[in-house]
Structures are given as C-alpha cells and as structure tokens.
Design brief:
The protein is α/β, with parallel strands linked by helices and about 400 residues long. The protein is built from 9 helices and 15 strands. The radius of gyration is 24 Å and the shape is elongated.
Amino acid sequence: MVLVPAVLLVILTILLGVRDAAAQQGDVSSVTVLDARIAGDDVRTRFVLDLSSEITPEVSGLADPYRLILDFPAMAFNLPGDVGEKGRGLIAMWRYGVFVAGKSRIVLDVNGPVSVDKMFVLPAVDKQPVRFVLDLVKSNPAEYADFVEKARASRKGDTGQALAKGDRETQSREGERPLIVLDPGHGGIDTGAVGGAGTLEKAVVLDFSSLLKRKLEETGNYQVKLTREDDTFIRLRDRVRLGHDAEADLFISIHADSVRHGKNVVRGATVYTLSDNASDDLAAELAETENMSDIIAGVELHDEPEEVTNILLDLARREARNFSVHFARTLVSELESAVRLIKNPHRSAGFKVLKAHDIPSVLVELGYLSNEHDEKLLVSEEWRERMADAMVEAIEIYFRPQLERLNAKTGQ
C-alpha cells in the first residue's frame, strides 16, 4: 500500500520534468506576447516584442499597399486593445491575430518600401522577458520588389485558405433539405469594427451566427454550415468558395460595421445585395471597408482569378441576383416588426463576399458598432433572440414553396 503514493510521486516528477523541458525549449503552443513597442524615425525603425519564450517568425512582404508580414507559430497575445493603432517612423500602424489554425500573424503597414536590416532574439535575462527585435530601414521600390519575390519563393506558404475541402460536391442534393451557409465576417487577425465600449465585430457576428444556426437547425427544415466556427481568418474568395462547393441554397454574410461619418445618426439593421454600382454613399463606404479584409490580413491579391464570362454564367448570375433581391425584401419585411432598421434598409454595393454567381447571397448588417445605442443592442441577449427569430421566419417564408414540394414527395 505504501508503494502506490511512491509510484504516483515518480510519475508526477516525470510529468513535471517533461513540462519544464518543453518550456525550456520554447514550446510555441504556450508562447505569449507580453508587450510591443516601436522606436526610431523615418530612416531606421525598430519593432520590439516581449515574449514568454524564444520564437522567430517567417518574414515576407507585400506591396500595393506596402506591408511587412511576420508569420509565427500559434501564439497568445496579452496586449492592450488599442495597441498598433499608432505607428512611428517607417511603421504607420500594425495588427495581430490568428491567421490560420496553428499560425499567428503580425502585419506591419509601412509608409513605403523598407528592408530588414536586422532581426534577432534576445534571451530572457534576470527578470527581463525574451525580446524579438526587428530593425527596418528605408529602401526603394526595386529592392523591395526583389525582397517580396525572394520571400515568396522560400515561404512555406499558407495562403490563408482555412477550408478543408477544395472540390465541389459532386453528389446531387435533389430531395434534400435546403442548405444555408452563414458567414460570420472577419475573424483572427481581422477584427473588423471595434465599438466605443470595445466590442469586437468578429466576436459579435460569430456569436450571433452560432445562435441563428441553432435556431434554424431546431426547425428541422435546413442544413446549416458556418464559414468559420472559431476566431480564425478566412479570405474573401474562400468564403465564397465554401458556399459554392457546398452547393448552398442561400448564403448570408453577417456583419456589424462602423461608419466614418454620421456615427450618431447611422444605426439599425441593414440588408445588402450585390450590385455593380452602390445604391448610396453609405453602401459604397461599407463595401470598400469589407473588401479590404484580405489586405488587412496580409493576403496576396494579384493571384485572384479573373472572372470567366459566358452566356450561361451570366444567366446564372442574373438568376442568383434576382433571388437575392427577393430574399432581401422578405427579410426586411420580417425585420421591420422585430428590430430597428436603418432608413432605406435594403441597399446594394459591390461586396466581394456576395459574388458567387450561382448562389442567392445577402450581407446583413446587424447594426453599427460606431453607434453607442447599436453597440448596446448587439451585446443584448434579448435583442439577439428577436433578431434571430425574425431572420428564421424570413428564411421559412423564402423556402416555403421548396419545403412544401419536399414534404409532398416524402409524404410528410
């Protein structure tokens, strides 16, 4: 009987030893960014991270606009909410977050072409943390372009593609329940809008999308998928591709943006559909903001495929847009009696995330985080319930003919 505690003690000692050894080796799964700062001027600028363990990034660059990309294995960030908003010297501003599973990214917006003069890690000494140091100096466009190409060639390369499936589903979905893809906007390094009280758009829309998914599934009438289920970045073309690959019957992108002008006036839910020309200045501003998501996350844009145009695609696109407008009007009608809507609640603009040529797609602004009243509602459980219930009812109305035909076939 005395041996049991002794054996447990030995096992515990071994486990602690393994844990300590992992910590000494800089187990990247437990690395935390403790602080960050910028020093220097327009000639030479130093970027410093205080870290809990030693770790070095893979560095690359992008132009148009100029950005320096630091890709780390997964890290935790223990930083103030406003960090990175103000730059110094060659760095205009910077941001951080999850890029894809297992990878964290820091994007430095630089004021022009730069080159990395030095990059090194200082080990922890006494009570000082590990320090990662990056020294930047002014460069010229030709040298920067050469650096971008060399970095691209040597990069292990993750394009930000967080989707597991790349091929379109080939099996027929005829006779199945309608499939709805809900797209919580932003995520990971792309936080989206930030409210005056610190509410993050990426968190609000994920919470709401999860609630809406649950309510739709409870009806028993739909299959529902989310483009993201956690705080991960997904580039715009992959959001569209997910809906296309799944052969979705409806794609709903969920957002809660901010506006630069009229934040005390612009409030209420809004439903957007795709159009080549924006319906108004607000729609144009929001489309421009949303379409910047890939740039914010440091995604290369030059490899975007050109749109293929032929008569069949044009017909499919026209049909999808007509159904999108039909659903948007149905949704506005249901929301009117449940929540506050903006004036002229159905608007349109060139949102990239709505460009699937074969899927009815809408973008729903739950409200505007730039407005303090909307921000309070967006974090209200009671308001979310009302909003989700109204959206479920609109979806039920939209799919009613299809559901009646399906029920008639199955004898329900």
